[in-house]
Amino acid sequence: MTDDILVADGLTKHFPLMAGFPFKRRIGAVQAVDGIDLAVRSGESFGLVGESGCGKSTTGRLLTRLLEPTAGRIRYRGEDITHAGRKELAPIRSEIQMIFQDPYASLNPRQTVGRIVAGPMEINGIAPRGGREARVRELLEVVGLNPEHYNRFPHEFSGGQRQRIGIARALALEPKVIVADEPVSALDVSIQAQVVNLLRTLQGELGIAFVFIAHDLAVVRHFSQRVAVMYLGKIVEVGGRDDIYRHPRHPYTHALLSAVPEPLDAADTSPEGTVRERIRLAGDVPSPVSPPSGCRFRTRCWKAADRCATEEPPLVRAAGSAEGHLSACHFPEPPTVARDTEVVLDPALRP
Ligand SMILES: Nc1ncnc2c1ncn2[C@@H]1O[C@H](COP(=O)(O)OP(=O)(O)OP(=O)(O)O)[C@@H](O)[C@H]1O
């Protein structure tokens, strides 16, 4: 018996690449997401991390069925919803909600907060006991806004408050899963923590499963019980938060972690508790139109060998890793990372 609520198997999205004039024709495909497997458990917070363009947003939109996958499957509570039509999707759509990065762009400027938050209830014909207005006021309170601001417009609120409005709207249908796509990256750093804390409270109190998309590991660390790291359309590592932060096995995770400035856990005094290597990856992320053969990370990896160009490493549990901690590397990092090691990579040393 599994408590997985939202599962992706081999999930793939290739956007057609068109060129030519006056008649456009397909000249290739952007391999935004390429055969990823992931399982989000009921009530958990699952972080999805990676650099810009690695396919996080596309994954979020596929999971919420805002985008049609090119291949693969999505299951919600055991039911295959990959190709579910509008009618079959309607009840599921209310249970899987999305919060977007830009709180302003995602709120209709001509609607009052009351109407915005009530919108999903209207669309789905839901009439809560006590009426929609009372429910909206309650939701505004839940997200830390003044219910008396019911008749105000989005421009009258700060960025953090607007994101709270977006969160209230996402909560209106009592979702079981919320996919939050970079929900705090457009906000001031001082406000970010408040919004993350709100999401954490909601996850704890309402038992909502969260897929929290972020480009850096620092934000996800405060919120996620499990974390998946993406690179160029693939998941390269997934595992419990502590496994990922303290014992990263994939070189890319290692490099991402080295950008986290502060100690990973101030309270942790174990020798492996803090990772402080400074790894500067050489070069840019390759194009998702023609990704490298074999391991997609190999062109930037200091460990790359011949095998990496010909054999794609499977996402598996490396020797010495905890259960459920999987990585996709032929030469995983040692199981325990020494404290305060300084790794300065010389691009000239790369194969
Ligand atoms: N509608 C589209 N048509 C063509 N290519 C697309 C489309 N949407 C995304 N892409 C491409 O797919 C790749 C993955 O994009 P995606 O937005 O999922 O990445 P991301 O990791 O969320 O990045 P960011 O943090 O910058 O949003 C990128 O190369 C992007 O340019």
From TrEMBL:
Gene3D superfamilies registered for this protein in UniProt: P-loop containing nucleotide triphosphate hydrolases
Recorded superkingdom: Bacteria
GO function terms (MF aspect): ATP binding
Residue ranges of domain ABC transporter in the record: 6-257
SUPFAM superfamilies in alphabetical order: P-loop containing nucleoside triphosphate hydrolases
Keywords from the UniProt entry: ATP-binding, Nucleotide-binding, Transport
Annotated protein name in UniProt: Dipeptide ABC transporter ATP-binding protein
Keyword field contains Secreted: no
Similarity field: Belongs to the ABC transporter superfamily.
The keyword Ribonucleoprotein is annotated on this UniProt entry: no
InterPro entries according to UniProt: AAA+_ATPase, ABC_transp_ATP-bind, ABC_transporter-like_ATP-bd, ABC_transporter-like_CS, Oligopep_ABC_C, P-loop_NTPase
